[in-house]
Amino acid sequence: MLRSQRVVLPDGERPATVVVEGGRIAAVLDHDAEVDAAEIVDLGDDALLPGLVDTHVHVDEPGRTEWEGFATATRAAAAGGVTTIVDMPLNSLPPTVDPQALAAKRQAAAGQLFVDVGCWGGAVPSNLGRLGELHAAGVLGFKCFTTDSGVPEFPPLTWLQVRAALRELAAFDGLLLVHAEDAAVLAGAPAATGDSYPAFVASRPARAEVSAVRELVAALRETGGRAHVLHVSAAAAAAEVARARADGVRITAETCPHYLALTADGAGADASDKCCPPIRDAANREALWARLADGALDCVVSDHSPCPPELKQGGLANAWGGISSLQLGLSVVWTHARTRGHQLTDVVRWMADAPARLAGLAGKGRIAVGCDADLVAFAPEQAWVVTPAALHHRHPGTPYANHRLVGRTRRTWLRGRPVTDQPFGGLLSGVTWAPHRT
């Protein structure tokens, strides 16, 4: 059993004792309850959180394992309090766009996982009409782009093709995850040049996100499908999501730690904070926090998208757009949330419960009887400085280097077992997944 003065439960934070049996949460009792347990862990003032669920991670294995791999990514996740990740279908080779590619990914992951892992599938022009096969193979949903993805093997969908995908997925109530930037708007924007972050932001304006969300909403109204907007950087796009949802459209949205913590005027020319869509100004950042508070944005997930250091060189305009932050997300978000009056219950809702619900993982993301005993001991008042060399990502580059953060993961349990140097994570399937798996 684990006891703490600060246990973050679905109905709030309070002192409690959590009893674990057979890898699941067997009971949640009063803090001073007497329990005949084989092991008692008293966390004192450290908070006990459910393991976070990060539904936006690019692992890149197989095919581009030199960018990131299952062992390094999942070790980093566990060190940051993340006990479940869902891998994105692109950047690995082959991309996860058919059952054979999914099988290759599962084979590559076997024996390397420090946390539990599920997979999204991809929706690309060549597999439309066959998405049901990939659903039956066990992916949790489908990702598409509405503009260039950055890798040639994962081409975007036109808006007509988005509608076709939504109609196909509606047959089994599948979820479409959308990188929502309007290709036509981007084509009319000024090109990014040199090392100027403002020029890069101008090349991917907020109106590209707004326009794409509006197009997506129109497609959802026509098809009755459901969709999730990925990595919202523009607060105005989140407002579009909120309006559509209030009108009955089945749409959700996420943002990322870097959009909540960083600003364009603080970005450097080393490309460690280059991402697509880009980090925007401070006023937009505060508006994103407001959209989290009012529920327009559902989740906060990493969009961990690493690459070898050489791909971040050659000037900002030409550098790979991706941020490495899987190990740091909880601390980054808590550091900035606490100064805006938010509580650990808010952070857990954004980073554990809501992502688990998005991916259909009913036994994850909550400290509740019957759920997997995925747990995190978190020191919410501990200040520390990010040292890139101490990160477990395959490459240590991060825009948070030397940042002072508040709140640190001390210990992580996966299905009741402490995560150590021995990987024992499992692969989750959208078809056969059950709350507890060895």
Structure, described:
This protein has 438 residues and is of the alpha/beta class. Helices cover 29% and strands 21% of the residues. It is built from twelve helices and 17 strands. The protein has helices spanning 70-79, 99-109, 131-137, 159-170, 183-188, 197-203, 206-223, 235-246, 257-261, 282-293, 329-338, 344-358; strands at 2-9, 12-21, 24-29, 41-42, 47-50, 52-57, 82-87, 116-119, 121-122, 142-145, 175-179, 226-229, 251-255, 299-300, 375-385, 404-414, 417-418. The strands form three sheets. Strands 1, 2, 3, 4, 5, 15, 16 and 17 form an eight-stranded mixed beta sheet that branches. A six-stranded parallel beta sheet has the order 9-10-11-12-13-14. Helix 4 (159-170) links the parallel strand 10 and strand 11 (175-179). The longest helix is centred in the middle third of the chain and has 18 residues, at 206-223. It is globular, with a radius of gyration of 21 Å. 54% of the residues are buried. The model is unreliable at 433-438 (pLDDT under 50).
Summed up:
With 438 residues, the chain is an alpha/beta fold. The chain has helices spanning 70-79, 99-109, 131-137, 159-170, 183-188, 197-203, 206-223, 235-246, 257-261, 282-293, 329-338, 344-358; strands at 2-9, 12-21, 24-29, 41-42, 47-50, 52-57, 82-87, 116-119, 121-122, 142-145, 175-179, 226-229, 251-255, 299-300, 375-385, 404-414, 417-418. Strands 1, 2, 3, 4, 5, 15, 16 and 17 form an eight-stranded mixed sheet that branches. Strands 9-10-11-12-13-14 form a six-stranded parallel sheet.
